[in-house]
Design a protein that fits this description.
548 residues; mainly alpha; Serine Threonine Protein Phosphatase 5, Tetratricopeptide repeat; 2 strands; 68% helix
Length: 548
């Protein structure tokens, strides 16, 4: 399995979410084009209860986008003129036109189109959902609530709708109405940063600052770039009397909003022919593992915006997944040249350097990323890992401690902490932590396996317990049979004095490693096989190079 490079999910910066949109900067008044009346608006069929669509001024848009608008308008007019069109077909035509208007931030025209689409297709949740976003930005807020409520009736388990309606209720001061929406969203998608943030706002409004801290910290863990979380988190810490942490978070405040994963808005944001749109399309391809298409979209975006750091970074991510590490490295470096503080590119280059054994360079990239974003958990966890592998275990331990302070449930950091204790030859502490974590995470055999190996082969006599190791291994063997577990089994048998069985198991796993072409593993297994044949136990659970 290839190491997964972390990439920041960033949707098109559509006005609905962040105040601007791709390819245009229209007048909020959306003035009607000063052209003859027959082209200044789109008249509905006379036989239907629909509204005419006043056309906005296209002159502020790029030529390619204007062309898109005219093509879509032609399709809409054709559907209107064709009297044989069904309500469904005409509704979709209005909806498609509304999507293009919305992508260009022409809210009034988009709202009219969606209203007509909803009249024709009242059971299609897309139209009230998009109307909810329009009203959320333009008002009135009561209309936004009504629209999202209708969308939720049509799709009761849609997380994005639950979150946005919860946000509207909170903005209206309806805390009791908002609370079950965020709870339902989290029951469906526990890792939703937006739902966690909403739950934190509810807890803060209810005076439960401890719960608010928990939810806000979780939101940041899932969406570290969401700098607007820091202010309410600081308020919660202040309420708890932790003024130092409150000040720390106030210093990190910013204007990056927490946003839910929103496929419908992604679809709208990807419509216009622009670098931003290609970025979104590529991101959608990344999400489904279509690396080739993703790379194609990002390259098309870079043709329009050759210095865009996000496009370079995401292109590098796609190339990495396509096993083009040279191309990935070049793309990440271009992203950093365009933006030295680009967290994703710093992180990704750090991962590449660490995988290549270029530990000092990896440390530099992770450290720089943390200078820009000190609370980025993934970057700090990676830094801890590479510090351990580069012979700096004490520093690694300190970094793991910081990660676990920020997120006590971070399993990689918990495991890394225990393995770093092993590097430091603090075997009793390692055993204690692995024992606790194996019980805490029963569905993750990594902890149990590491504990079994430590119990089988630790140099410390007070730590080894072959009988307990045997119990753990028997349980693990019911779930998996790997070369590594076979190696641990042989260690345990040797510690029990069952050297004949240890030799037999070791020979079996050695043959499996040879067949798999694992030359480094073969060498290690051969060394221990000689030990068992001599009637000697293993006292090296992991060599420094082999520590997980």
């Amino acid at each position: 399995m290839r190491i997964r490079i972390l990439y920041q999910t960033s949707w098109v910066a559509c006005a609905l979410l962040s105040g601007g949109c791709v390819g245009s900067d229209p007048d909020p008044a959306e003035s009607v084009v000063a052209v003859p009346s027959d082209t200044s608006r789109v008249e509905p069929p006379t036989s239907r209860n629909l509204q005419p669509v006043a056309l906005p001024d296209f002159s502020v848009m790029a030529e390619s986008v204007r062309e898109q608008m005219h093509v879509q308008l032609a399709l809409l007019r054709s559907a209107i003129e064709d009297g044989s069109q069904s309500s469904a077909a005409l509704g979709v035509a209005y909806g498609d036109m509304g999507n293009l208007f919305l992508a260009a931030s022409f809210f009034q025209a988009a709202g009219t189109c969606y209203g007509n689409a909803q009249t024709l297709l009242p059971d299609d949740r897309r139209w009230p959902y998009y109307l909810g976003h329009i009203y959320r930005n333009t008002g009135p807020i009561d209309e936004a609530a009504t629209a999202f409520e209708r969308a939720l009736e049509l799709a009761p388990n849609d997380v994005a709708t639950l979150v946005w309606l919860g946000v509207i209720y909170l903005d209206q001061g309806l805390v009791e109405a908002a609370e079950p929406l965020f709870s339902q969203a989290l029951a469906i998608r526990p890792a939703s940063a937006a739902a966690r943030f909403g739950a934190g706002r509810v807890a803060l409004a209810n005076g439960d600052s401890a719960q608010a801290v928990q939810e806000f910290e979780a939101a940041l863990a899932f969406q570290p770039q969401a700098s607007t979380v820091h202010v309410p988190l600081a308020m919660a810490y202040r309420n708890l009397g932790d003024l130092e942490r409150a000040e720390t978070h106030l210093d990190q405040r910013g204007d990056v909003e927490v946003t839910p994963r929103d496929p419908l808005m992604q679809e709208v944001g990807s419509l216009l022919e622009s670098a931003e749109a290609y970025n979104v399309r590529g991101g959608q391809a990344l999400d489904v593992g279509n690396w080739t298409d993703a790379a194609t979209w990002f390259r098309r975006g870079l043709e329009l915006a050759p210095t865009d750091p996000s496009l370079h970074h995401r292109l590098g991510t796609a190339l990495y997944q396509l096993a083009d590490e040279t191309g990935a490295e070049a793309a990440f470096e271009e992203a950093i040249r365009a933006d030295p503080g680009h967290l994703g590119a710093r992180y990704s280059l750090g991962v590449l350097r660490a995988a290549a054994g270029r530990h000092q360079e990896a440390i530099e990239h992770f450290s720089t990323a943390l200078e820009y974003d000190p609370v980025n958990i993934q970057a700090r966890a990676q830094l801890a890992g590479v510090l351990g592998r580069s012979g700096r275990p004490a520093e690694a331990l300190a970094e793991y401690e910081r990660v676990l302070e920020m997120d006590p449930t971070h399993q990689d950091a918990a495991f890394g902490y225990s393995m770093t204790l092993v590097r430091l030859e603090r075997y009793e502490e390692a055993r204690t932590r692995l024992s606790a974590d194996s019980e805490r995470y029963p569905d993750h055999p990594l902890f149990t396996h590491a504990l079994a190996r430590l119990l089988s082969a630790a140099p410390d006599d007070q730590v080894r317990d072959a009988n307990l190791a045997q119990q753990l291994i028997e349980r693990l063997l019911e779930q998996q049979q790997t070369i590594e577990l076979g190696e641990t089994t042989a260690m345990m048998l040797a510690e029990l004095g069952e050297y004949g069985q240890a030799v037999a198991v070791q020979r079996d796993v050695l043959a499996a490693a040879q067949q798999a072409g694992l030359s480094g593993v073969v060498t290690r297994l051969e060394v221990n096989l000689v030990r068992y044949e001599r009637g000697e136990p293993c006292r090296t659970p992991w060599t420094p190079e082999e520590l997980p």
